[in-house]
Specification:
mainly alpha, Farnesyl Diphosphate Synthase, 18 helices, 76% helix, globular
Length: 339
C-alpha cells in the first residue's frame, strides 16, 4: 500500500505536459497574442467585443502552440510562424462560433456562448470575419504552400460541419462515419497547425509529412478523449457538467459503441433520448449505466491511445530534444484528460 501511495503522489507531482509546452513557447506565444488582439480590431465595435469574448474565454491555445513548437522542432529561427499561429487560432475560433450556433449550445468552457449573448446572426457574421482575417494573414505571408494548405484546411473544416449535420441525432451512425466527422472537424486543423512548422522552416517533404501525421493523429486522439470526457465524472472536477453531448443529442463514439452493443429494449431508449431528444429525469444516469455495462468509455479511450501511439511514432523522425519530449507529452495529456 505504501508503494502505491508513493507512486500516486509522484505521479501527481510530475510537471503537467501542457505546462511544459506552454513554457517552451511562452515568448513566441506572447507575440502571437499581440497579433490576435491587433487583427481582431474593427471600426464595427461588436466585432472585437464578440470575438474577444470567445478568445478570452479560457481556451488552452493548443493549436497555435503546436505551430510554434513544431517550428522550433524544425530549427526555424524566423518570424513567419508568429502570424501563422494567430491564423490557426482565428480559424479555430471561427469554427467554434459557427458550431455553437449549429449545435444551439449555451455554454462553452463554463461561460455563456456568444450566440446566447449576442444572437445567432452576430455569431455567424463574426465567425465569417475571423475566417476573413485568417485569409488576410495567409496572403500577407506570401507563400503559395501556406495558402494552399490553410485554404484547403478551411474547406475541409466547412465540409466537416456539414457532414456532422448528416449524422446529427442518428444513432445508426457508423464508427467510420464518426471518424470522418472528427477527422474533418478537429484533426485537419491540428494537422495543418503542425505541418506549418515544417513549411516555414523549409524542411524536406518527409518531415512535413511526419508533422502532418503527428497533428492528424493527435487531433483524432484529442477528440476521442473529449467525447469520452463528456460522460466522465472528471467533468465535475473541471467545473463542467456531465452529459452535455447527451442533452444535445450528439452522436459520439461512446454512444455509437453503447448502442451497437445494446439489446432491443436498450436501443429503444437510445432512439428516444437521442433521435427524438425526448429526455426525462434519470435518462442521463441510465445512459451512463449502459456505457458502463458495455465498456463504451474505456473502449473509446483505447482507440484514443491507438491514434496517440501513431502520433508519437511520427515524431521519431526528429532528433531527441526538449521540444520533441513536450510534443510527445501532449499526446498523453490529451488522452489522459478523460481520467
Amino acid at each position: 500500500m505504501e508503494n502505491v501511495v508513493r507512486i500516486n503522489r509522484d505521479k501527481r507531482e510530475e510537471p503537467n505536459a501542457l505546462d511544459r509546452l506552454t513554457a517552451l513557447v511562452k515568448n513566441d506565444m506572447a507575440r502571437v497574442n499581440e497579433v490576435i488582439i491587433a487583427r481582431m480590431q474593427s471600426p464595427v465595435a461588436l466585432i472585437p467585443q464578440l470575438a474577444g469574448h470567445l478568445i478570452a474565454s479560457g481556451g488552452k491555445r493548443l493549436r497555435p502552440m503546436l505551430t510554434l513548437a513544431t517550428a522550433a522542432l524544425c530549427g526555424y529561427d524566423g518570424d513567419r510562424h508568429i502570424p501563422l499561429a494567430a491564423c490557426i487560432e482565428f480559424l479555430h475560433s471561427a469554427t467554434l462560433l459557427h458550431d455553437d450556433v449549429v449545435d444551439e449550445s449555451r455554454l462553452r468552457r463554463g461561460n455563456e456562448t456568444a450566440n446566447v449573448l449576442w444572437g445567432n446572426q452576430a455569431s455567424v457574421l463574426v465567425g465569417d470575419f475571423l475566417f476573413s482575417r485568417a485569409f488576410q494573414v495567409m496572403t500577407d505571408d506570401g507563400s503559395l504552400d501556406v495558402l494552399r494548405l490553410l485554404s484547403g484546411t478551411s474547406a475541409v473544416l466547412a465540409e466537416g460541419e456539414v457532414l456532422q449535420l448528416t449524422t446529427s441525432n442518428d444513432v445508426d451512425t457508423s464508427e467510420d462515419s464518426y471518424l470522418q466527422v472528427i477527422s474533418a472537424k478537429t484533426a485537419v486543423l491540428f494537422a495543418a497547425a503542425c505541418q506549418l512548422g515544417a513549411i516555414v522552416a523549409n524542411r524536406p517533404a518527409a518531415e512535413e509529412e511526419a508533422l502532418e501525421s503527428f497533428g492528424r493523429n493527435l487531433g483524432i486522439a484529442f477528440q476521442l478523449a473529449d467525447d469520452a470526457l463528456d460522460y466522465s465524472a472528471k467533468q465535475a472536477t473541471l467545473g463542467k457538467s456531465v452529459g452535455d453531448d447527451f442533452r444535445e443529442g450528439k452522436i459520439t463514439l461512446p454512444v455509437i459503441l453503447a448502442y451497437r452493443r445494446s439489446d432491443a429494449e436498450e436501443r429503444t431508449f437510445w432512439r428516444r433520448t437521442l433521435e427524438q431528444v425526448d429526455q426525462q429525469d434519470g435518462d442521463l444516469e441510465h445512459a451512463l449505466a449502459l456505457m458502463t455495462k458495455y465498456r463504451a468509455l474505456p473502449d473509446t479511450i483505447a482507440r484514443a491511445r491507438h491514434y496517440g501511439a501513431m502520433a508519437k511514432d511520427a515524431l521519431r523522425l526528429f532528433a531527441p530534444s526538449p521540444t520533441r519530449d513536450a510534443l510527445t507529452g501532449i499526446v498523453d495529456f490529451s488522452v489522459d484528460r478523460a481520467f
